[in-house]
Amino acid sequence: MPVEEQLLPSPKLKPIYDDIVWLHVYNDFKEGDADRAATRIRIRFSVSSWPQLLLVDPYTLEVVGETGRQVDGFLKAVADVKIQKPKYAKADELMKKLKEAEELAAELETKPNAKLVKKALESDDVVVRYRAAEYLSKEDPDELAKRAPELLKTPNDLLRYAVCQAIAKAGEKVTFTEDLVTALEDIARDPKDSRNPNVMRINAVQALARCGDAGSLEVIKPFAQGAANNGLTGISVDAIGEIGARSKEAKAPAAQILLECFPESTGGNKDAKSIEWYSKMAGRIAEKAHKHLQDLTGKKPEFPKTYNEETRAELKKAFEEEVAKLVKKAEKKKQR
Question: Is the distance from CB of 258 to CB of 296 less than 8 angstroms?
Fold first, then answer.
């Protein structure tokens, strides 16, 4: 890999070798003690994709720099960081707090129970809260949903992913609050403090598919009409369809949005090979929009064997009249 083979062995890094405590975090995904310890480190520093090169204050565990993967950028990032060493008593207190959190998190991984989780939810340690959320997602999803708005404020990707994924899979008996929907919409609009904003949006939109309402549609709409080669696009189309099917108020506006979710078949490409590549992805998005429009309007036109600009226009036209009827019916209902 370029980082291990090119960046880290570079002789240009020799002057700073002794200025840094180097920590290589490796997951083997075998779920042994070492793997779980590595995962706790990734959770703590909000790392969900790799390689990531972070500079961390050893006294506060705050991320104080991201180096990039080029030698010059790495050296500059290190030079820009100034660490203020705290008094020994303060450092000792921080280490004691971290040790207690690590022990509690490790216990939650191997011997989770309701009593431990209650204690964990009172902790301000992100790894401990992550493990508590993980437990609640399986054992008490309704309780997790209640705590979700607060948990989603934590600027940590892995914790927010876990909460969103639990909401997306929640059963019919789980109660969702307006605060939860608002929190998810806020993340979808602006995934602040995320190291992977597109994936953060994907998780938030999948959760909104389960609990969002008519008001959520406008938040999701721009993503549903995005590029066909972005995974967020198809997920957003599905979310709009699912919200429209679940909410009477959302049915007509969802259908209106879906009518504009048949993506351009070429993606602006000019050469035949690129157009063929893109049109396949665009066709898969179009199939999703087609299915949801069938469900919402009751009209069942067949999906074309080939998706291109001609069949794209035909698909849109096939649903226009039925969507207009839904919108007119919704407007009459509002006037009553």
Answer: yes
Contact 128, 154 (CB under 8 A): no
Inter-residue contact 90 to 107 (CB < 8 Å): no
Q: What is the pLDDT of residues 81-109, one digit of tens each?
A: 888 776 656 778 888 899 999 999 999 99
pLDDT in tens, 197-238: 999 999 999 999 999 999 999 999 999 999 999 999 999 999
- Tokens in use for 267? 């993606």
- Please state, in angstroms and rounded to a whole number, the distance separating the CA atoms of residues 318 and 300: 9
Which of 134, 203, 131, 217 lies closest to 168, judged by CA? 203
Count of H-run helices and E-run strands, the chain: 15, 2
Alpha helices in 45-195 (DSSP H): 71-80, 88-110, 114-121, 126-139, 141-151, 157-168, 178-189
**Residue 208 to residue 185: CA distance in whole angstroms:** 8
